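Researcher: Going back to the complex we discussed earlier. I've cleaned up the inputs and rechecked each line, so this should be the final set. Can you rerun the prediction on the complete assembly and write out the structure?
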Amino acid sequence: MAEDDVKIVMFCCNWCSYGGADTAGTSRMQYPPNIRVIRVMCSGRIEPQFVLKAFREGADGVIVAGCHHGDCHYDAGNYKLDRRMRLVYKLAEDMGIGKERIYHDWISASEGEKFADTVKMMVTRIKELGSAPLKEQLDAEA
Amino acid sequence: MVEKAKIGTMWLGGCSGCHLSIADFHESLLDVMELADFEFSPVLMDTKYDEVPELDVLIVEGGIRNEENRELAEELREKANFVISYGTCAAYGGIPGLGNLHTVEELEKEAYINSPSTPNEEGIIPNEDVPALESRVRPLNEAIDVDLVVPGCPPRSDVVAEAVIALLKGETVELPTTNLCDVCPREKPPEGLAMDVIKRQFEIGKPEDDLCLIPQGLICMGPATISLCGAECPSIAIQCRGCYGPTSKVMDQGAKMISAIASDYGIEEDKTIDPEQVADQLDDIVGTFYTYTLPAALIPAKMQKGGK
Ligand code: FES
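Model: Rerun complete. Updated structure for the full complex:
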């Protein structure tokens, strides 16, 4: 698919990853514009429902980013997210979405470069995979 | 004498178990009959689909599995004033909904050719005189408008009787908004839920009395399930499988439960436990968490192009 059509929803926790996005911005790093960032207070707030909803509404990929282990502002939200995402990958495989379309990682507020690299990596990956089949298939049936 | 209301019942893609729940009204049947008559019910009487009377209340069991289901649902909707989507299959697709993990071709092959109890040497898949399967199972409300949803597999007779009587008296019917844990008699540990192993019922034998089943290693769907049933299963030491579907605050029952189990698992060693461990212990994610609600889930069917 064309790079312009790639749609990625990215969840960032307020205290680290969103700061990472800021750092990438203020230091004028270049990264593709295909992401829609949704800020949540902590990655521990991100439920599998959010990830699935993103696909339902037409996202081609989802990135979830939180603080590094040990850095979570609320102590351990990111550990819980970590376990949750392992189940989400499995579910995505079973439902034919493919686990490659989902990615979670830890990005601190100073890691603007890691933020930009993560986005670049996912955009390339999704471009190769093509658009997510869910919305297409449901729309075609309706 | 005031004129009695006309009730109709219908079965679509279900197992007729929900109708048994109506047959099981017991004495409340008398209360219902005082206010209404059953005018149309393929389960109870001889009915003709081209002679459907005008109905005040129509109770529909089962989801939309094939073309006939859809046609009948649409036809009956026109005749009925008020439609109750009755039982989990009508409300969320139910167990037949797990068929959404396969294509129609796969399902037909399994049913007509591979199944050992079906001798079919020529490998014929019937396509005349049987309604064609739709691409996937859908809850009733994706085919027609429904006015009330009463879930359950099957719904408890007293719950339905109460709802029907209230409706006939012109009262509004409201479902509880709380989850099962709210009404479950088992005690939750005061320090919060924590599980360190996932087991199946036969592996643990008889669970400890009075203690919540989740810390004992069972996946109890209570946290994401509506409290309509009164926690019957957990009170007799069987984990909830979520047959009444989610509460109104939950979008996707399975995903909500995945969230709960993954968070509770190993919470005491939050920072040292291998995050992969919980996923390793669950082989059948869809079968465990979406037993009853796959067609109503955010991802309602397996995507067939392999995600490509
Ligand atoms: S605050 Fe960043 S992960 Fe919890």
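Model: Worth noting: Chain B touches chain A at residues 101, 135-136, 250-252, 254-256, 258-259, 261-263, 265-267, 270-271, 273, 275-279, 282, 285-286, 297-308 (CB under 8 Å).
Researcher: Good, that matches what I expected from the previous run.
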